[in-house]
């Protein structure tokens, strides 16, 4: 049972006015965290030039943000179960906003990297509990709609990141990419303090050593992905891989028998939860493969400018924005497994269509294919969110919410690493290989999603 700030019980979501304010606060926070995952990629050359650093060293601006987010997501999700999702979200908003200001004021690469580290921590706190908060904000009959709105914000923020960065850099310098978060973050904090609901707290405590093992294990995992993407040799990758496996083993051993493990392996014993998580990882790997490789094709092969590339990527984002709320509402009435399977089949076919582009494609040739992919991707997200959260008990909403964000980031990191591998195989056909892999991942995700219909009938 939830309570508002005045202590009044809220048994099934918030009243409409409070619900809108709470959703706006969550949307701003999640939008900023998602946007900053993608926006810095476009600005990296400009940042490296102004800070007088090498391209290789500047990559840490990207890596440290992703590393901090993935490493701390599950500890913050578990903390939300203990002290309340509202507190963790507000903490994340405060840290992210302050770190964004520090990024804008950074005077050197080390200062910017440290600020990005804290920005990633703040983003993890918000992303780790946002889905659990939606479960408390929206009544049960409207939760599909809430997840649809959340999916819209995440997908569109990630998709329009390159375009937004290009437009800002066309009229201002790179610090404004981060400074724009400050007023938005301040508004989100005020809204969160006013509207976010208090939630029932779990009786267990946070295990500090488990949290440390989680941070190290996931940090090593993302570090290994990053080094693989940048074609480091096996003399470096093999020790990182072994260390990653060792720390995951220690983490699983430490939390064995815990009623609410930080890495929620207990939830993966539920077939619907496991299949939904697998669907998410494969789908976001497909998205990562497409979104990292396509700009190379548009700019290197077709000779388009970065701004033109951003607009060529826009149909995907626009159609996600159109379809996500529709899919969210449909998921309140129809099987999320079937809806997600249909959407992912469309995504896979759209990626295959991208492989069949003519040698000199027109804007229309590219546009309708990107739009088709957007329709499929938008049709997947909200139903999958509902399936994940609905397959977990209310007391484990924090762990489920953490897995939602972790699955997305692991999928995207996998996609980015595979793009680098594809370009290692062939510099000229790397995009083709990456899109083919993306279509395969989307196809596997579609099969996993449809299989939930069978599992649901047997449950």
TrEMBL record:
Residues 22-459 form the Major facilitator superfamily (MFS) profile domain. It is a multi-pass membrane protein. It holds the Pfam family MFS_1. GO terms for cellular component: membrane. The keyword Transport applies. It is found in: Membrane. It comes from the Bacteria. The keyword Ion transport does not apply. One of its GO terms (molecular function) is transmembrane transporter activity. The chain crosses the membrane at residues 21-44, 56-76, 88-107, 113-137, 149-170, 176-196, 208-228, 234-252, 272-298, 310-330, 337-357, 433-455. Keywords: Membrane, Transmembrane, Transmembrane helix, Transport. This is MFS transporter.
